[in-house]
Write a structure and sequence with these properties.
Mean pLDDT: 95
Low-confidence stretches: none
Number of domains: 2
Largest sheet: 2 strands, antiparallel
Strand order of the largest sheet: 1-2
Number of strands: 8
CATH topology of the largest domain: Fumarase C, Chain A, domain 2
Number of helices: 18
CATH architecture of the largest domain: Up-down Bundle
Shape: elongated
Length: about 450
């Protein structure tokens, strides 16, 4: 029988809900007193007992092992104050109790995750300002494409994270709904005051349908999706960090504490932190799939399957938070090797688009201009030349439109300076980006 109790129990993982569960029970008890469902004396005794348990938990005391955290708290309360402790559970079920605790917990966690994202964004903005004049190649298909400012590249991630924060804000709205008072599935015949309980617990809304309230885990799925997308964004940056650290790129340095040596090759420093963040994303994505699979095809209302929602939620939260903390510290230490990044802009004919634009500005249809520049690039490749090594006479072989001013279109810094469109990579545009995102970070 003991094995079955362990099998169906959840205390091993839902123990972290103890604090929010007690906070919910204190509010529920206050509501029971206010509505005269239990008397004031009993209510005070219950609240004092719960408060003492809460304080001890906060100081590191562990609850006794029970089927779940809710039962463990109720048993401990009854041990302390006697059978009056059982009145705490009047007008509620574990079904609405557990989802209330989960919503309270997730609301707190969303605030923590948003703060961590904000901290990372501030580091990205600082790095953008520190590297406002550093020129790097921009890539498409991992092929050199056009020169850009390193600051522009870094800020792309700041804007991704801004969208992540907005998603968490939306998720918070749908989590901020009190299910307590739905009881097992049908509501209760006691004259409860759900709006009062919601006010005590800081919920903006109360659930409209008791069946939906006890079985809804959409907010949890949405949370883990938001965490998955944040993790995905971190992996994209980590992949670039890993590439940029290779000798083939040699664009950046990061502090040695974010790397490790090889067990056999003494010359190596491996970007382990970036790789582990990249790897942890797989766990977080798996948590999302696990949660979706638990809820899939589940009939109304509460089913015991739903207790298995917590491990993937907790795992996704824990791993996303640690990844955000580590990447924030890692990027704080990042330094661009500006001589090397600028030198790389000389490879791959990065000025090709500018030459096409030059022709288009001189009334050549862009598609025609595109073909002319393609021929110029082929000409350069056959002769192992760069675009800035051609003479004006060589350019005129392909079009008489070219004048000597074409050469200012071949310099990476000039190319960047000309990208003045809103959201572009010119220094002016990038500084505008920085001001805009700093406003949002306030």
């Amino acid at each position: 029988m003991q094995k079955i109790d362990q099998f169906i129990g959840s205390f091993s993982f839902d123990g972290r809900l103890a604090e929010v569960d007690i906070i919910g029970s204190i509010a529920h008890t206050k509501m029971l007193v206010k509505t005269k469902i239990i008397n004031n004396t009993d209510g005070k005794q219950i609240i004092l007992g719960l408060t003492s348990i809460l304080n001890e938990i906060r100081n590191g005391t562990k609850l006794g092992d029970e089927e779940d955290v809710h039962q463990a708290i109720e048993k401990e309360l009854i041990n302390r104050i006697g059978t009056v402790g059982g009145k705490m559970h009047t007008a509620r079920s574990r079904n609405d109790q557990v989802v209330t605790s989960l919503r309270l917990y997730i609301k707190l966690q969303i605030k923590i995750v948003k703060k961590l994202i904000n901290s990372f964004q501030k580091i990205l903005v600082k790095k953008a300002l520190d590297n406002i004049d550093v020129v790097i190649p921009g890539f498409t298909h991992l092929q050199p494409a056009q020169p850009i400012l390193a600051a522009h590249h870094i800020l792309a991630y700041a804007w991704m994270l801004q969208r992540d924060k907005e998603r968490f804000t939306d998720c918070y709205k749908r989590t901020d709904i009190l299910p307590l008072g739905s009881a097992a599935l049908a509501g209760t015949s006691f004259n409860i005051n759900r709006k009062y309980t919601a006010k005590l617990l800081g919920f903006q809304h109360i659930s409209e349908n008791s069946l939906d309230a006890v079985s809804d885990r959409d907010f949890a799925i949405e949370l883990v999706f938001c965490l998955s997308l944040t993790a995905l964004h971190l992996t994209r940056f980590c992949e670039e960090i890993i590439l940029w650290m290779t000798p083939e790129f040699n664009y950046i340095k990061i502090d040695d504490k974010f790397t490790s040596g090889s067990s056999i090759m003494p010359q190596k420093r491996n970007p382990d932190c970036a790789e582990v963040i990249r790897g942890k994303s797989g766990r977080i994505f798996g948590d999302l799939i696990a949660l979706l699979t638990i809820i899939k095809s589940l009939p109304l209302a509460y089913n015991r399957d739903l207790q298995e929602d917590k491990p993937p939620i907790f795992d996704a939260l824990d791993n996303t938070k640690i990844c955000l903390r580590v990447i924030t510290d890692m990027i704080s230490s990042l330094e661009f090797i500006s001589e090397q990044t600028f030198k790389s802009t000389e490879k791959g004919f990065l000025a090709a688009t500018e030459i096409a634009d030059y022709l288009a500005k001189n009334n050549v249809p862009f598609r025609t201009a595109h073909g002319i520049v393609k021929d110029i690039v082929l000409y350069c490749k056959k002769r192992s030349k760069n675009l800035n090594e051609l003479s004006i006479e060589e350019y005129n072989r392909f079009s008489k439109i070219f004048k000597k001013d074409i050469f200012k279109y071949l310099d990476a810094k000039n190319i960047i300076k000309m990208k003045t469109s809103y959201g572009g990579t010119s220094k002016k545009s990038v500084l505008c980006q920085i001001r805009n995102i700093q406003q949002k970070l306030k």
